[in-house]
Amino acid sequence: MDAVVSVVTVTLWRGLMHGRRHPL
Q1: Given 3-state DSSP classes, what are the helix, strand and coil percentages for the chain, each rounded to the nearest 5?
Q2: What is the b/e burial string over 10-23, where b = at least 16 CB atoms within 10 angstroms of the residue's CB?
Q3: What is the pLDDT of residue 22?
Q4: Tens digit of pLDDT for each residue in 1-24?
């Protein structure tokens, strides 16, 4: 499960870092 959590964390982090253009 560590692998899944790591991938999800990276995906969410990238979304937050590069998600400034898409204001939710």
Answers
A1: 65, 0, 35
A2: eeeeeeeeeeeeee
A3: 60
A4: 799 999 999 999 988 887 666 655
Distance of alpha carbon 6 from alpha carbon 20, whole angstroms: 22
Angle ∠(6,12,16) on CA atoms, nearest 5: 140
Residue whose tokens read 């937050």: 16
Output the pTM of the full model.
0.48
